[in-house]
Amino acid sequence: MAAEVICVGTELLLGDILNSNARYLAIELAALGVPHFYQTVVGDNLDRIHSAIEIACARSSILIFTGGLGPTPDDLTTEAIASYFNTPLVEHPEVIANIAQKFAQIGREMTPSNRKQALQPAGAQLLPNPSGTAPGMIWQPRAGLTILTFPGVPRELYRMWRDTAVLFLKTQGYGQDSIYSRSLHFFGVSESALAEKVNYLFDSTNPTVAPYAGNGQVRLRIAAKASSEAAAQLLIEPIATEIKQIAGNNYFGSDDDTLASVVGDLLRARGQTLSVAESCTGGGLGRLLTEIPGSSDYFMGGVISYANRVKIDLLGVDPAALETEGAVSEIVARQMAAGVKAKLATDWAISITGVAGPGGGTDAKPVGLVYIGIAAPDGSVEGIKYLLGSQRDRDLIRLMSAAQSLDLLRRRLQS
Amino acid sequence: MAAEVICVGTELLLGDILNSNARYLAIELAALGVPHFYQTVVGDNLDRIHSAIEIACARSSILIFTGGLGPTPDDLTTEAIASYFNTPLVEHPEVIANIAQKFAQIGREMTPSNRKQALQPAGAQLLPNPSGTAPGMIWQPRAGLTILTFPGVPRELYRMWRDTAVLFLKTQGYGQDSIYSRSLHFFGVSESALAEKVNYLFDSTNPTVAPYAGNGQVRLRIAAKASSEAAAQLLIEPIATEIKQIAGNNYFGSDDDTLASVVGDLLRARGQTLSVAESCTGGGLGRLLTEIPGSSDYFMGGVISYANRVKIDLLGVDPAALETEGAVSEIVARQMAAGVKAKLATDWAISITGVAGPGGGTDAKPVGLVYIGIAAPDGSVEGIKYLLGSQRDRDLIRLMSAAQSLDLLRRRLQS
C-alpha cells in the first residue's frame, strides 16, 4: 500500500517554482508511516497526465495529486483523472454557491471559468478548500486504488491535508505506526570516514541509519517506525549513544543544534562571553552567532577588519607583522584575536583571516588558506592553519572558515 | 528528443531536503531549448532505480540523474545504471589519484570506500567534478539514449553542468533556438504594485515577461526565444528599457547584480570607501558586502556592536541616548553610523539597529522595527525608521534590514 506524489504543472518543468509541495507531502507521509517510493512531476498536458496515472497505478495504491485544479484551460488534473477511468464529470452546485460567496466577500463577481472547479468525477467525495476556490477530492475509481487531489497553492494544500486527508489516511489504518527521526551532527570528519566506522548500522531496518553531507558537515539520520514517539525514542536512543561513542568529539549536536547554538549553550553555561575579529568572512561568523535568539547573553560583538588599516587601528595588529608575514598569517590571526578580546573585554575571542578567492592566491598562500585565532580566558592565544582547498568557491571557503572557527571554540569549551 | 530528470535519494522521499536540483535543471533545460516533460524522484533502492530507468527510457532520450554518487553503500546510482544495461563497471585510476590528492590537500587520508567513486560503466565518459570527489558521466548505453549523472550536492552539480554538460548538449544540436533571458531587479516596490504597472506585457509571447518575488525583492524575467543571443537581446532590449522607465529608481540592476554589487560599483566609480556598524544583523551586512570579489577596493570593515557596551566603547554612542531612547532608536542609529565612519575614516558609513525577534518586542518597539543610519561624505548623518513587520521571522527581518540599508545607500549614491 504505497503512496505516490504526482505534481502537475508546466511551471515546475520550466523551473519557475521550487517543488515545495512534494517535500511537504513527503514529510507528512513519513510521519504517518505511509510508504512512499516515487514522486512524479508532469506538465499540464492530457496525454502525459494519463501516462503518469497509468505508471503510478501499476506501482502504488494511493495517488496524491497537487496542482492543475485552477479555473483556466491549462488546469487539467480533474478532467484527466476522470477521463482515464472513463468516468463522467458531475457538477456540484454547493461548490458553485461556495465560490460565488467567496467572490462576493471580496466584492468581486465569480467568473464563468470558475464553474469548472465544481466538476468532479461521479462517485468522488469532495475535499473542501476553506482558503481557496478549488476543492479537491478523494476517490476510489477501482478497488485497491485511492486518488486524492489538492490545489497547487501550498497554503491551501496544507490546510486541506491537515483537515481531511490525515483523518482519511488514519481511517485506512495509517498513522498507527509512524516514523520518528533524530539527526546527529558531526564536524571534523569526512562522510566516508565516519560511514566506515558505523557502516555495520546501515543494514539495520528499524531504526534505519543513513549518512548525509554538505558544506563540510556530516549528518547521520536515525529513523524509527513505532506506534508512539516514546516507543520510537526507545529504539533510537541506544543507536544514538553507540554512534556518539564511536564519533567521539566529532559529534557536536542533534536535530536543530548548529555549531553556533552549541557554542552558545557552552558559553552560557559557563557565564562567559565571546567577541570576533573577521577578515575574509567579513561578518559571516558574527551573523552565524547572532542567528541564535538570545545570543546577546554571551556574544558581545566584534570588528570586521577587512582592510589592514582596521586591523592596525582597531585591533592593535603590529604593522611590522603585516608587512613581513602578511595579513593571512598565524601571527596576525593571533594578534587579531588578542586585540578584539582586549578591546571588547570578553572571555573568549575568535579571529579569521584567509584567502577566500577567487583571486589573490599565490603558491605560498593559495586560495583556501585560512588562519583561525582563539584567545582564551587564561590569556593564551592560539593560531591554527587550515587548508580548505583551492578548488572550493569563495562562498564555501567563507562559510567553512566560520564553521571551522566555531568548531575549534567548541572543542576548547568541551575540553 | 526529450530529457527527463531523475533525482535519486531517500532523503527526498522523506522530505529531509527540498529538491532544488530538479528546479535548477529545469531552468537550464528550458534555457537550452531541450524539451522536458517528466521528473522522477526515486529512493536509494536498486530495483526501484531500475524501474525508473525502464520507464524513462521508453519516453525520453536524455536521462539526467542527480544524487546517489557518494562513497557509502546506499549510493547506488552508477551501479544501478550499469547493471540495468548489463555493462561492467571499470575503475578509473585517475579518479582515485584525484580523490587522494583532494584528501591530501586538506590533510586527510582517502578512505577505501571512496574507491567506489572511481567506478563507471565501461564506455562511459567521465564528467570531472572540480569541487568534490564524485565524478559524473556521459554515456550512450545504446543508440538514441544518453545518460548523464551528477552528484546531489547542488554546488557540485551546478559547476559540472556549466563546465561540461552544456557544451555536450550544444554539440547534440540543442541550444540552436535557445531561450535567453534577462532578469531585472527591483527594490522598494511590491510585486503586485509593479505587476499592475506592467501587466500589459504579461500577454506577450516572445519575449515573455514574468514576475517573481522573495525576501522583499521583486524580479521581472524577460525571456526571448531566438537563434542567437544577439537576436534575443534585440527582442529583450526594448521591453527592458520600457520597464526600467516605468519602474524609475526602484530598478537597481540586472541578472547577476545584487544590491551589494551595485553599491560596490557606485563606490568604486567615485573612489569612495564604506564602513558598517551592525547591531541586530550581527555581521550580515558586512557578509553581503564582502560576498563580492574585489570588495576590498571600497569596503574597509566595521564594528559588530551587538552589546551596548561595544556601541559606547568602540563607536562613541552616548550612554545617555542609550538610556533614554534605547538601543533601537534614530539617535543611536545616527551615532553608530557617525562613530564607525570616524573610527574607520571612510567616506560613507551604514548602521543598523533593530528588533529582530522573536522575543524582545514591545508595543512601542515591536519586532521588525529597524533604524538605519547613513553617514555621508559631507558630514551629514540620517537615521531612517522601517517597520519590517512583526509577522516576519528573525532571519528574514535581519536579511531585509541589510538589504534595505544597501538600497538606501544606493539611492544616495545615485542621486
What is the compact description of this entry?
Chain A has three domains: 169 residues, 3-Layer(aba) Sandwich (Molybdenum Cofactor Biosythetic Enzyme, Chain A), CATH 3.40.980; 77 residues, Alpha-Beta Plaits, CATH 3.30.70.2860; 156 residues, CinA-like (Maf protein, Alpha-Beta Complex). Helices cover 40% and strands 25% of the residues of chain A.
What does this structure look like?
The structure is a homodimer of 415-residue chains. Chain A is an alpha/beta fold. Chain A has 3 domains: 3-171, MoaB/Mog-like domain (Molybdenum Cofactor Biosythetic Enzyme, Chain A); 178-254, Alpha-Beta Plaits (2-Layer Sandwich), CATH 3.30.70.2860; 259-414, CinA-like (Maf protein). Chain A has 14 helices and 17 strands. Chain A has helices spanning 10-13, 20-32, 46-59, 77-84, 93-105, 154-171, 191-198, 229-247, 259-270, 284-290, 308-315, 319-325, 330-344, 394-414; strands at residues 3-8, 36-42, 62-66, 89-91, 119-121, 125-127, 136-142, 145-150, 178-187, 208-214, 217-226, 251-254, 274-278, 299-305, 348-354, 369-375, 381-387. In chain A, helix 3 (46-59) crosses helix 4 (77-84) and helix 9 (259-270) packs parallel to helix 14 (394-414). The first copy, chain A, is elongated and about 85 Å long. The mean pLDDT of chain A is 93. Chains A and B meet through helix 2, strand 2, helix 3, helix 7 and strand 10 of A and helix 1, helix 2, strand 2, helix 3 and helix 5 of B.
